[in-house]
């Protein structure tokens, strides 16, 4: 559909007209170009550098004065020890490879930290009233613990298991040893009384995928690097022009930041 | 205690699809209507930030807050029902427009066979075809009688489609032409034709082109944005009550909408409903809203739960098979499906729309011979391209490790190199599948939760086995390099999303012994009370429910007008 006809079509509409036109204005789509990369890119520091700084508290490697700092990369919930376990574990689940960045570079552990600090970490919109009974697997999670508590316990148990088996903290294990620990959780080889080891593994696996692919506004998917891996274009305004097309369409992705005016 | 408000002609409980249609039809006819909706108000401008997979699809932004109210579930009567603590199997609507806001818009008509399922099954195969315990029954109405109301619903929503070659007779064409055809859809269509099946475009409420409906409501064409199911439409392209029927009702000046109003009881006296008791959830204050006619449109679960809590109608008793409220709960049987992997072809499947797809009905209803099959009914088989969003799009061939380097590489490789073909299986009611009040768990007001007792049966397992193989055949013919079909059905579980196609509980029919409402959805024993929704379905067909539910809503609206002029039983 050509742009003029599109505008024309919109004349008669009530709400759609209004919302669509503002939307077009906000996204810069109406002027024909996708405003992409520039703004977002300048806000993010090179991911490697920023994680190094945060992880080691290494302040000697200062960012150049003209480079904006990503203030989002600090902790709302995890202790530093928990964060380092999380960062190492998610990187094993979703490692950097020839295709592109892994969990660490994408900021997945920050994403999980920020999620746990809010409603999701407190199971705010889930039914948490008793009585509590152990149910059938078909009935789903029936525990009384909230996600925050599960992560606190689960990460401690990963540390304990690493210490016991390899006499080292999880973050200091070799990648192969880290995989051994994760496998032991995934298969319930680790026997825990408080939480289900495999249930915990499933949760961190799920949040790793969320952190890799959710809109970068949540602190993961740094630089939309997760989306680029899958050639996912983020949220474009319209696919009317390509929906019937046989050829695969590669596009520069667009994030939600582009949908708000920033002066 | 409760503040008594001035009386109105009609009070509606819940303002989703059913409530919206009733509000618009009754106010257009001159009645004064109060609509009580427990959730918040909604409008198209709310959706500037809607393309957010995490917030809307995985954190369930638009759905009922389960901390306030949920359901409990057990597979059979021997085990203890436990609460659905977080979302899984289905998602419950909340707020203005209900689930009509974040649905896909796949809008089918049930088949003529559905409405006379028992007689037609016996006629063709004999009584013995119906297994012990299966409680199918005729619906007390025929397809032909319901056809004008299907037409009304399709014109209001502007359904885009071409004729289903194996469906019931239509009096008119779909109001708008079918959606665009993607390469995947074309391959599905060609494959089906090669197999001598009858493909057609999935009837869509997403709008193929701009459309103005008979109420004068104009909507824009769908942009194939790929954020449809679980999201609101920022273009107003998707038919949703908030951009169709609700503004029509408001324009009459006869509709008073009250959001944040949670109805707890239907009040009644001497066999007549007198109004409802509700709570303003912003203040905690209780109100009594008296009305001449009460209409329940609070979805399957609360339609059933409110009747049971209010002591209206005879509760269903699975031991004797008598009673009606809670009877014939059914669902959808979806596991018959296949996935095809393509090594050298990438599809633009990040783009899509909720009801963009092709489908066939060659194996739906009684369109095929069941003589040698161990199940009745069937499924609509389809390829739909609804938008493959990255968190949830991780389809990989079996044998791939479940995480780590190889997993990541495979998810990246196949992200745009796979196609799913699925069967939307019908679901027959059984004597031991039902809804009642949970004896233990309560909602935020201390009222009992709805309890579901349900599991899959041999009928469902046989259906999945059959359909999974058919999906695989279609994918092979589509040229997939590797085809994986699922032909197994595990016990029903509440943790993974299947569909929000719950049915039954307040079913319609021609006898008060086996149905709660007549074919105008009027309660047999409380004539000024109408109970509208898929709660009226006596079984679930091999289709999404809303086309049929919408048709029944239009018929009920006509019935309410008739009743208002001339009180008494409508049948
Ligand atoms: C993700 C999703 C996708 C879907 N896709 C399709 C599809 O493609 N095709 C299809 O045919 N169907 C689809 N459906 C189903 C469809 O949305 C429903 O069939 C339809 O919305 C049902 O209409 P209803 O009016 O019965 O209920 P709803 O639309 O759910 O409305 C019920 C309303 O009642 C309110 N309510 C409930 N209890 C109370 C109370 N006690 N007091 C006050 N208010 C109350 C609720 O808040 C809600 O707003 C989908 C559903 C979901 C969730
Ligand atoms: S796919 Fe179409 S109908 Fe669905 S939300 Fe996007 S524009 Fe609206």
Bound molecules: flavin-adenine dinucleotide, iron/sulfur cluster
* Helical content band of chain B: 10-25%
Low-confidence runs of at least 5 consecutive residues of chain B: none
* Apparent shape of chain A: globular
CATH class of chain B: Alpha Beta
Look up the CATH topology of chain B.
Answer: FAD/NAD(P)-binding domain
Characterise the protein shown here.
The complex is a heterodimer of chains A (263) and B (571). Chain A is an all-alpha fold and 263 residues long. Chain A has one domain (4-10, 20-129, 138-259). Chain A is built from eleven helices and no strands. In chain A, helix 5 (80-93) crosses helix 9. Chain A is globular and about 55 Å long. Chain B contains eleven helices and 22 strands. In chain B, strand 10 (261-269) and strand 11 form a beta hairpin. In chain B, strands 1, 2, 3, 9, 10, 11, 12 and 22 form an eight-stranded mixed sheet that branches. In chain B, helix 1 packs parallel to helix 7 and helix 6 crosses helix 10. The structure holds flavin-adenine dinucleotide (FAD) and iron/sulfur cluster (SF4). Iron/sulfur cluster (SF4) is lined by residues 206, 222-225, 227-228, 231, 233, 235, 237-238, 353-354 of chain B.
